[in-house]
Design brief:
The complex is a heterodimer of chains A (about 190) and B (about 180). Chain A is mainly alpha-helical. Chain A is built from 9 helices and no strands. Chain A has 2 domains: about 100 residues, Rna Polymerase Sigma Factor, Chain: A (Orthogonal Bundle); about 90 residues, Winged helix-like DNA-binding domain superfamily/Winged helix DNA-binding domain (Arc Repressor Mutant, subunit A), CATH 1.10.10.10. Helices cover about 75% and strands about 0% of the residues of chain A. The chains are: A mainly alpha (about 190), B mainly alpha (about 180).
Chain lengths: ~190, ~180
């Protein structure tokens, strides 16, 4: 068991050092190891899969260009930080949503009775509740509650204090609760 | 403290963000307050809903598409370099070959290659057949003589070698044995 744990910590370091040596195959391995983390985070922050794929591409290209400066220990933190920053840039480039747009979308959306897919309902609830949050609140909630990072890690990634992160997460949870209860039309 | 004051702490408690002492205080309040129990239940349910939705797998094709785009971008800058490397390499080989040919065929101007004039035997009518090669340098006679078998009886053979310098003439007289 200890040997397996040792292998699990050694392999990423080897992949990173191989990738630093210029091996594209090693870099692809590194990318496979972190691609879910990057793409899913970007998807939750942006709410659009195509935009999230664009951001993921930018993040990994940036990773390749910065391989020489990276240390094995903080690779995931670096990837999260770059992903959050790239998402912020992508949102700024995007057409800003009209103030009433989200409200209209929420009002017009009704669960499809023929669509007996609980998963689809949950996915929609997740997507729409995240859209209610401010950029900082969304990032804090996604990293803390969905990606499962500690408050300290989230604070380092977002470049803020732990107290700020706790406050943002707290507000975000209360907003999400309100939306989810309204969305499903009953107390959950 | 009214229930509104507990909201923030309950929200943190539901996410596991409170220290042990604070968490115990929240649990004590929840045990006595039905409204806050409902609030905490709603928070936990909504977080659970979001986590379940978040955990749904994303199709592998999306990851593969990103991977392909990244690898394509990384390989692209290398291709022109490889193409130019072939051109540069071929040019270098051609230049080296040209230089090699030039060096092997080049003769210095002061050392013209001239054939050596070989005179016939002075007295003997039965001179052996001689084939002379080029003389490469001034005042330096280099020759290669292919000697035919001399007829018997053999008379002395005289070979006259003319150099570039008209004042220098070399005579080579062989003995009876042709040595």
């Amino acid at each position: 068991m200890k040997a397996l744990e040792s292998l699990a910590t050694t392999l990423p370091a080897m992949a990173l050092s191989d990738a630093k040596a210029g091996g594209l195959a090693a870099f692809e391995l590194l990318m496979r190891r972190h691609e879910r983390m990057v793409l899913v985070t970007a998807l939750r922050l942006l709410g659009d899969l195509d935009d999230a794929k664009d951001v993921s591409q930018e993040v990994f290209l940036k990773l390749y260009r910065h391989l020489g400066k990276l240390e094995t220990g903080n690779l995931a933190g670096w990837l999260y930080r770059v992903t959050v920053n790239q998402c912020r840039d992508a949102r700024r480039r995007r057409r800003p949503a009209a103030p009433g747009e989200l409200a209209a979308a929420m009002l017009s959306y009704r669960p499809d009775p023929r669509q007996n897919a609980v998963q689809a309902e949950r996915r929609k609830a997740l997507e729409m509740s995240l859209r209610l949050l401010s950029e900082r609140e969304r990032a804090a909630l996604v990293l803390r509650d969905l990606q499962g990072l500690s408050t300290g890690e989230v604070a380092r990634i977002l470049g803020s204090s732990e107290a700020t992160v706790r406050s943002q997460v707290c507000k975000a949870r209360v907003k999400v609760k309100g939306f989810v209860q309204r969305y499903f039309g009953r107390r959950r | 403290m009214n229930c509104g004051d507990w909201e923030e702490r309950i929200a943190l408690y539901c996410g596991g963000d409170l220290a042990a002492a604070e968490a115990r205080a929240v649990e004590e309040h929840l045990a006595d307050c039905a409204g806050c129990q409902a609030f905490a239940g709603g928070l936990q349910d909504s977080l659970e809903t979001l986590r379940e939705a978040h955990a749904e797998p994303i199709a592998e094709a999306h990851f593969a598409a990103v991977r392909a785009r990244v690898m394509g971008e990384l390989e692209c800058p290398r291709r022109p370099w490889r193409r130019w490397a072939w051109v540069v390499g071929a040019a270098a080989v051609a230049a080296a070959a040209t230089l090699a040919v030039a060096l092997t065929t080049h003769r210095p101007a002061e050392l013209p290659a001239r054939p050596v004039e070989i005179a016939a035997p002075v007295k003997s009518a039965a001179a052996p057949e001689l084939v002379a090669l080029r003389q490469p340098a001034k005042r330096r006679t280099r020759r290669r003589v292919v000697r035919a078998r001399a007829p018997q009886p053999v008379e002395p053979l005289v070979v006259k070698l003319v150099t570039d310098d008209p004042n220098v003439v070399i005579y080579w007289i062989t003995g009876k044995s042709g040595e």
